[in-house]
Specification:
With about 450 residues, the chain is an alpha/beta fold. It has 3 domains: about 140 residues, 3-Layer(aba) Sandwich (Rossmann fold); about 120 residues, no CATH class; about 180 residues, no CATH class. The protein has 17 helices and 11 strands. Helix 4 packs antiparallel against helix 5. It is flat, with a radius of gyration of 28 Å.
Length: about 450
Amino acid sequence: MSLVEEYASGVLDAPAGRLRSNTLAAGLRAREIVGLTDIWAVLVVLWVFKIGAHLDVVTALFGTLGISLLYPTWRRAERLTLGALDDLSVVAGRISIAFLFASGAGLILGAGNPSALFFVAAGSFAAVLVGRTLSYKVVRARRARMPLRTLVVGGGEVAKRLIEGLSRRADHGLDVVGIIDDAPLLEADLLGAPVLGKLDRMPHLLETLEIDAVVVAFSSSDNDSLSIIRAALEGGKKVWAVPRLFEFGGTAPASDHVWGLPMVRLSEPASTRSHWMFKRAVDVIISGLSLIFAAPLMAAIALMIARDSSGPILLRQERVGRHGRPFKCLKFRSMRPVDPGVEATDWAPDDARITKVGRWLRDTSMDELPQLINVLRGDMSLVGPRPERPYFVHMFGQLYPRYDQRHRVPAGVTGLAQINGLRGDTSIEERVAFDNYYIENWSLMEDLKILMRTVRSLKG
């Protein structure tokens, strides 16, 4: 029986005293503990001042702002090394901002007690730090009691140091059950954990051994480790990595560490983040309103196309969207019709085919307006990688290793590549780089910036 089979069959168990935990529940519970404690701390201070008859609308405004500004910091509860003093500057900064805004509101309204507001702010700062000291203690104890089953990628000195550090700090909550590497530099007895195989076995091991977390510590693999690790993220696993050249320092202060070894938490896929649901809501609202306001313009364009040349007003072209699913992408026709086979495989059409109205539509990107209907229907998003025809998706997928990874999110009317000038007959490799960068660093604010830059480029 192989080592993996022994783990799967229960012959080898997790270390004594360690209980299985649910990764998602553990992460949410840690943030909830810290968040509820912060709210309680601020409310207690406000209640004390209410008893003293010093609570007014300005101090109540401070409390609301303070809690709102502390909200983003609750994610800090997911760090491996937890300490209230590490949050000192963050908490002080958020409380100070809330105090300044509330003070400004008091001056404008001619209300409030400046002295009382100052003491409320100071009291809230102290109360939040005390609360975090207690909440972090609860989180650390829970992690030690219910650690995440962890797989380490790498079999060298860095992995050895990492495993030793985790064994010393049970409150980090990572229980190493094994190591994978194509060519481990050290034996299992020196590493401190069993070697379970090569990197390409990770997908099987994640399921068989019920792995919750992965830590990347300099594997010697020559395989495409990036796609394998991304699969772990998409499977809901927590992933950390030891940064290269960490010996030179310079790691961001917000980075984590295990016994002095820097650690960077890799972001979960865009579609699994809590804000992703708002992307679709923004798409529906903006595309719906845009279609209403643009209806007269679109009707005028349709009339111009009909008068300029014979053929359909709209071009319904098959494109590839999220997860490789095809859909009919809508555009105003800007060229004279040709055989559908030519349309599907012609990368750079002859300029002679472009109509007079079509050239204007292309120069102003007005030919893309009907794609707002695709967005409203859910085929596309306002922002994302531009969709391509199936023939070229197959071709580019063979030429560029990361091309297919563009299909992790919905295709977009505009995107990061397009606002950087990568439109039409431009480098596919560069487009792939921009598209995957956008996906891996997605945020609603990034979408907003891309939309604003798209509008600005149209005006230019």
